[in-house]
Amino acid sequence: MASLKEVKTRINSVKSTRKITSAMKMVASAKLHKAQGAIENMLPYQRKLNKILTNFLSADLPVESPYIKVREVKRVAIVAFSSNTSLCGAFNANVIKMLLQTVGEYRTLGQDNILIFPVGKKVDEAVKRMGFQPQETSLTLSDKPTYQEAAELAHHLMEMYVSGEVDRVEIIYHHFKSMGLQILLRETYLPIDLTHVINEEEEPNKEGVEGHEIANDYIIEPNAEELIANLIPTVLSQKLFTAAVDSNTSEHAARTLAMQVATDNANELIQDLTKQYNKSRQQAITNELLDIVGGSMK
């Protein structure tokens, strides 16, 4: 059995750890509250943009976009979102696991034909351990995402796709549902997927009205070609920015929950150690009393 001093030292050590985990939980919770408000306000806007874009591209309009053309995949780009720091449960481990699975599916293309864009230090380190040379991305896009940085990465990916440098772009990130639930998603970023068109049961409506075109109840000015040319980069940039904010919010949620669990475990351990300390102390007092009584009877 451990001595009283050893047990007391362990209790103090666990109490110090509890202070740290409790403080980290409060910080993560505050960041989560701010990030949650941002993603909840952004998602409806993103969904509306997706609806407009898919309705236009699926309508019977004489417009062809290079972003919807499906090609044989000979070269692929993968964008994976993780955190820059640890202590957030299985958040990063799940992203890395999904990345390994995705890379495994494209192994037949050859390592040089798999381009990985890691957003976050943890997935960047994992990519290097996998033997890949990570593509350059902004580290601040993981913990402090901005639309400008997301748009720069989005335009780079669009240029690579249009030029034929890559034939598909996939993104891996966590979608925030609640503090206790973050869903890991793997989505095709390019080409744009038109199989999930909102209101797809409705027939596209196209007719001339006062010199304007109407598609799915939208009046297009000045023409569909110009509007779609401007809309697609906006939607794709916004989608990548939304994924970055979604991932960042999920990270704070995972860290809040992990620190809560760690704090609860510390409380339980302190209780167990305190019981052990009291029992050992009581046993020591009993032994001393027995020694005194035994000595007086001699």
How would you summarize this macromolecular structure in one to three sentences?
With 298 residues, the chain is of the alpha/beta class. The chain has six helices and seven strands.
Task: Describe, in plain words, how this protein is organized in 3D.
There is one protein chain. Helix 1 (4-58) runs antiparallel to helix 6 (224-296) and helix 5 packs across helix 6. The chain is elongated. With 298 residues, it is of the alpha/beta class. The protein is built from 6 helices and 7 strands, in the order H-E-H-E-H-H-H-E-E-E-E-E-H. 58% of the residues lie in helices and 15% in strands. Strands 2-1-3-4 form a 4-stranded mixed beta sheet. The protein has a domain at 29-198 and 218-255: 3-Layer(aba) Sandwich (Pyruvate Kinase, Chain: A, domain 1), CATH 3.40.1380. The chain has helices at 4-58, 91-105, 121-129, 140-143, 147-162, 224-296, and strands at 76-81, 114-119, 168-178, 181-190, 206-209, 212-215, 218-220. Strand 3 (168-178) and strand 4 (181-190) form a beta hairpin.
